[in-house]
Design brief:
3 helices; 3-stranded mixed beta sheet; 107 residues; alpha+beta; 23% strand
Amino acid sequence: QNIMSENSFTTHWDIDDDTLSLHTVKLTIQPLVENALKHGIKPLINRRKKGSIDIVIRKKDDLVEFTITNDGPEVDQDTLAKLQEALDKGEFEQFYHKWIDILGDRV
């Protein structure tokens, strides 16, 4: 992706040694990283700025936590409130595609 984006971002990996021997479903983090590129890094590229993506993998008790962040524009508070409301009501699945559209309109 970085080559296709003309080296317009850097990637930082922070992986707990405790997770290196664990297995996960293939392509688990790919859609998350692609989302960070599309909604976080692309707006920076459009402004001729270089961005960064951080990928953190940690073991938390019996779970593995994947955290993908970028230094692109933040999601506005109204969108975050709508997302939280959908999560609180258990309506995330119905809200998900609308949320992606909202984010897409934002960038």
